[in-house]
């Protein structure tokens, strides 16, 4: 999988909800339903499961999250354990690359 592009990653990570989702799937891959239920318990701002799905797909498109087929279901997992951005150099530092 290609390395995430700076602008796409920063754009999606500017959303508090996307960062909450990324934290949710940091250690274990989860389905949309599992992420939604966890965020509901944390009183996060993502009310609808479809909103969680759209945010996860944006994270996938940015290259920060991967889709994992698990039988008939799809799980989402973080590709990195840490993401840092250097805005002056427009560079991402990515740690814990999986795969």
Automatic annotation (TrEMBL):
It comes from the Archaea. It holds the Pfam family Penicillinase_R. The keyword Nucleotidyltransferase does not apply. Gene3D superfamilies: Winged helix-like DNA-binding domain superfamily/Winged helix DNA-binding domain. InterPro entries: BlaI_family, WH-like_DNA-bd_sf, WH_DNA-bd_sf. One of its GO terms (biological process) is negative regulation of DNA-templated transcription. The keyword Lipoprotein does not apply. GO terms for molecular function: DNA binding. Keywords: DNA-binding, Transcription, Transcription regulation. Belongs to the BlaI transcriptional regulatory family. This is ArsR family transcriptional regulator. It comes from candidate division MSBL1 archaeon SCGC-AAA261F17. The lineage of its organism: Archaea, Methanobacteriati, Methanobacteriota, candidate division MSBL1.
């Amino acid at each position: 999988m290609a390395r995430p592009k700076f602008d796409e990653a920063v754009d999606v990570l500017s959303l508090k909800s996307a960062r909450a989702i990324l934290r949710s799937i940091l250690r274990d891959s989860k389905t949309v339903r599992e992420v939604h239920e966890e965020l509901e318990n944390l009183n996060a701002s993502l009310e609808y499961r479809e909103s969680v799905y759209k945010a996860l797909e944006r994270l996938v498109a940015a290259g920060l999250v991967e889709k994992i087929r698990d039988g008939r279901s799809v799980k989402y997992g973080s590709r990195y354990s840490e993401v840092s951005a250097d805005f002056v150099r427009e560079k991402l530092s990515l740690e814990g690359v999986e795969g």
